[in-house]
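Q: Structure tokens for this one, please.
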Amino acid sequence: MLLKDAGKYLYSFTKRYSAKCCIGFSYGLSFPLTLVVLDLWLKDSGVSNAIIGIFSIFHWPFIFKFMWGVLIENYDIPYLTQKVGRDRSWIIIGHLILLVGIIGMAHSDPSSHLPELIFFTSLTALGDGCKDVALYPYQISKMNSSQLGYVAGVVGFGHRIGTIVTKVSTLYLASIFNWKIAYLVAALSISLLLILILSIQPPKKRRKNNEGSRISVHDSIKRSLIIPFKKIIKMKHGPHVLSVLILYKSADFMMQKMSRPFLLEIGFSKIEIANIVQLYGTAAVIVGGLVSSHFIRKVGIANAMFYFGICHAISFFSYLIFIKTGAVFLSLGLVTLYEAFTGGCVTTAFLAFLYTKCKTGSLYALFWALHEISGILFMGSSGIIVDSVGWKLYFILISLIYMTILGGLYIILRRITL
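A: Here is the predicted structure, written as tokens:
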């Protein structure tokens, strides 16, 4: 009887959340190609830490996806919208831009064609941002307040599965063949995923498809950009919300940017990083995300964000082990599992917080833009800091600074999440 009830619950849970998991998978499959995987490619090609950090700036089209959101929320694609609807038509366009960018990156050599790689990286980020905004209504449809943690966990689960597929496959293919083949295979995977996404039932239409042919540019900007921005400014505790968006994952951005180049620098191979950091690390992130979903419901978002953040800050100190021991495989496994588990908890808690503040795709895109602009600044400065102070002091500084930031944010979170 118990097994039968458990089976029914599992079936009901899977039926309710499988589409959201697929959306998260789509996010994760493409996102690493312009950041984490690209960082390893640049490092493998002999590019300096400072340039790797600065390269984050060329991810800007993804950051400013709220601008593309104005088009996505208000305008139709000629012919295509009549055939498949506005949401699906923009999903298709976003994927097409994304695929052109990835294929272009595959044919660009960092050692001899860096400007070309910069252009196609930005184009890939543009397509990725368009796709994300178009898919956001799928993510929040049919969701109530009691499901915040679960939806965040399931979307995060799909996202991490997507990242593990991309990171591991590209590293293996780059080691066996080359980076060009790795990126071309990634483009093929994304094109196949598009077919699956188009099979998902779109959310209920908020306006008629042909409305986009009548609305003026001024009205579309006002509706999707100016009004949401005013809502942020005028909302209760608006400045406090902005401080959380900007600072909560600041140290995590800096660690994600520099940890992989650091591991390559001290002697770990691409295959070892693929096996431990990307494969087992991503599995630990998934477990952390799912476990944290239940914890968030029990203790609340504010407490969860604070406790998870402190645990994650401690994980940054663990990289000091490698300064002492060098490339020890067992140490890499232990450090990765702890950092990844706490990182999954932090990301899920942050996403649940974001759900409480965003109700539309444009507002969500604007919030993410503010969050990721700060991330670009943190990541862009990370390589310069490493080259200035060295790895040891870098890990110590960001750990201590992050703990201090969390103390201040906890007071704010208690006020704005009650």
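A few notes: Confidence is low (pLDDT under 50) at residues 207-213. The domain at 18-199+236-416 is CATH 1.20.1250.20 (Growth Hormone; Chain: A;).
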